[in-house]
Amino acid sequence: MKMEFILTKQKKTKENKLVNFISFFLYKSGIIEKNISLVYNEAMRCVLQVVDDVSLKIQNELYSSIQKGYLLFVGFKDGDNIDIIHKMIDKILSLRLFPDENGKTNLSLQDVHGEVMCVSQFTLYADIKKGRRPSFNYSLKGEYSLPLYQETIHYLSSLVSTKQGVFGEDMEITLVNHGPFTLMIDSGDLV
């Protein structure tokens, strides 16, 4: 039996985080038609770099690498869900960031048969307002962001060649940035 939920804007609480987490898994298992979340400051954040080459090492061992494409750092915040992930990835893949034969940025990642290196990075939500040490209170905790990161990888992989880092690991990333061309994209900007 399919269920449908309608929720309105809510205050951020631990209970709301749990509802968002449960909603994601109910949606993935087909029990509910649409992933819902208690929405407050929904803002999946991505930093996208156009690259000619990326290599990612873990404990000094090469783990993955790509050639021409995007290095995509992703961070999650309370309220992010599968719909936001799909909207963000669709937007990112539709961007025309590669030069055509006239040097104009008219070609998408798919037009140039590029790849994506996707790395989870909770530090994208660092708060530096107070003191000298960043606070990461706005970052979604690991147990809630891991399924969202896995969905990001799954959805990206269904559309383009995708490599990834390892969630929660200390990684060494070497890249050749083309341009440089770097964008910071928040899902709240897509509305």
What's this, in brief?
The chain is an alpha/beta fold and 191 residues long. It has three helices and eight strands; from the N terminus they run H-E-E-E-H-E-E-E-H-E-E. The protein has one domain: D-tyrosyl-tRNA(Tyr) deacylase (D-tyrosyl-trna(Tyr) Deacylase, Chain: A, 3-Layer(bba) Sandwich).
Overview of the molecule:
By secondary structure, the chain is of the alpha/beta class. It has a single domain, classed as D-tyrosyl-tRNA(Tyr) deacylase (D-tyrosyl-trna(Tyr) Deacylase, Chain: A), CATH 3.50.80. Helix content is 24%, strand content 31%. The protein has three helices and eight strands; from the N terminus they run αβββαβββαββ. The strands form two sheets. Strands 1, 2, 3, 6, 7 and 8 form a six-stranded mixed beta sheet that branches. The chain has a two-stranded antiparallel sheet with strand order 4-5. A hairpin with a 5-residue loop joins β4 and β5. The longest helix has 18 residues, at 142-159. The protein is globular and about 55 Å long. It starts with 13 loop residues before the first helix and ends in a 5-residue tail after the last strand.
Blueprint of the fold:
Blueprint: H1 14-28, E1 45-58, E2 61-66, E3 69-75, H2 82-94, E4 96-99, E5 105-108, E6 115-120, H3 142-159, E7 161-164, E8 172-186
Parallel strand pairs: 3-6, 6-7
Antiparallel strand pairs: 1-2, 1-3, 1-8, 4-5
Q: Which H/E pattern describes the elements?
A: HEEEHEEEHEE
Oligomer: single chain
First-to-last CA distance: 32 Å
Choose one word for the global shape.
globular
**How many helices does DSSP assign?**
3
Q: Uncertain regions: pLDDT < 50 for 5+ in a row? A: 1-12
Largest sheet: 6 strands, mixed
CATH topology: D-tyrosyl-trna(Tyr) Deacylase, Chain: A
Compute the gyration radius: what is it? 17 Å
